[in-house]
Amino acid sequence: MVTITEVIPYKMDILLAEPFSISFKTYTHSHGSFVVIKTDEGIEGYGEGCPDKPITGDSQEESLIFLEKASKYLVGAQVDIENIHGILDKVERELFPSQTARNAIDIAIYDILGKLEDKPIYKMLGSSSPNIVPTTLTIGLRSIEETKESARKYMERFEKNGLRRIKLKLSGDPESDFQRVSAVIDVFPGEITLDANQGYKDPKEAVKTLEEIYGIAGKRVILVEEPVPKGELDLLKYVSDNSPIPVFADESAATLEDVRRIAETGSASGINIKLQKAGGVYYARKIADISREYGLKLMVGCNEETFVAISAAINFVASDSSVINADLDSDLLVIDVQITEENPLEYFRNGSRYPTDKPGLGITLKNWFRDLLYGKISLKKIPSGNDRTDNL
Ligand SMILES: [Mg+2]
To answer: What confidence tens digit (pLDDT) does each residue in 318-343 have?
Structure first.
């Protein structure tokens, strides 16, 4: 058995390529965590947490406190996924839940397990050939003209990657949402997904808007995420029962318990699994099992993550043939800092994300990033002019 010798958590803040807006928030940075787990076999695993309180339930600060405590309990533990989650349960009982800290540790453990078996994670999970599905590239909330322009830009920029699906954020304002969808279907010939991020307070208004959108776009619109306020399953069920476009739960389907409730009440026809909400691959698989049992469809989404966490999601998609749509684009669009030797763009082909097929997560950290992690580089801005207080 392989034993953990060291767990090193880091705070990781990344400036986004450009601000990104959804119905309730504008993002300028990704505020997350990074974790390195070392073992007595000399194999290291890497993980990344990307908290976003309204979606994952935890803040960056909470996730770092969780990681700090977990890192102490994990030293000396056997690298066994059930065992590790048992230890994390204990941390959760003593502190609070942190799904993104759990995810960071979970994917670092899968990274180690894959490297030990010399297999990519999806093969380790039992899939001999990867399940490959189209990924959407997301357009945040913008004016109608800017939305149209973004669609054109994506088509140009990702033509070689075979772009097939675009995801549009909805605002909750029926008129502008309809106009924005209409503008995109005019210029983009592929499929579209929608995400209201709880934007519609009135479920009847949501259904009416979705009917109108369906009227002009038909089956080209394959799904809509989280139309109404999170956790209001009666409202969600109303929209799901009456909308011509399949409704997927996202914010309302964070944990395994949430998904069970949605499945039992028939409140949605699909689930957006995010490893950052679920607490890693271990729980995502359990969510997938429940979803299959109740005939729910699956998509896999992301937060503002680098290729490290995205690789875990790509491997999860590749491992499970019930996933019909991926929304794994943050490493292509909003994070323009590359911390891995592998270029994410090379793993976006035919409009789909592909695993690198190297062991574990299949990634190699860039030397400069490793040097940062191991304290060989320290970056601090030198104060200039009047800010300068020392004698440098
Ligand atoms: Mg969503």
So the answer is: 999 999 999 999 999 999 899 999 99
What is the 146 CA–ligand 1 centroid distance (Å)?
A: 21
pLDDT tens-digit readout, 187-231: 999 999 999 999 999 999 999 999 999 999 999 999 999 999 999
How far is the centre of ligand 1, averaged over its atoms, from the C-alpha of 197 (Å)? 6
Ligand 1: distance of its center to the CA of 379 in Å?
35
Q: What residues contact residue 122 under an 8 Å CB cut-off, 6+ apart?
A: 130, 131, 315, 316, 318, 319, 355
- Centroid of ligand 1 to alpha carbon of 364 (angstroms): 29
Classified as helix, coil or strand, 386 is: helix
- pLDDT score for 388: 54
Of all helices (H) and strands (E), which one includes residue 297? strand 297-300
Q: Residue 110 corresponds to which amino acid?
A: Y
In the reported structure, the alpha carbon of residue 250 is separated from the centroid of ligand 1 by a whole-number distance in angstroms of 5
How far does residue 219's CA lie from ligand 1's centre (Å)?
20
Entry field: residues in the chain: 392
Q: How far is the CA of 378 from the centre of ligand 1 (A)?
A: 36
User: Nearest Cα to 269, choosing from 296, 307, 242, 239?
Assistant: 296
Report the pLDDT averaged over residues 222-249. Answer: 98
- Measured in Å, residue 55 CA sits from the centre of ligand 1 at 9
Beta carbons of 58 and 101 less than 8 angstroms apart: yes
CA 65–ligand 1 middle distance (angstroms): 26
The domains located in the chain, with CATH, are 4-122 (3.30.390.10), 124-353 (3.20.20.120)
Task: Determine the distance from the C-alpha atom of residue 20 to the mean position of all C-alpha atoms in its chain, rounded to a whole number.
Answer: 15
Average pLDDT over all residues of the chain: 95
**pTM to 2 decimals?**
0.94
- Measured in Å, residue 195 CA sits from the centre of ligand 1 at 5
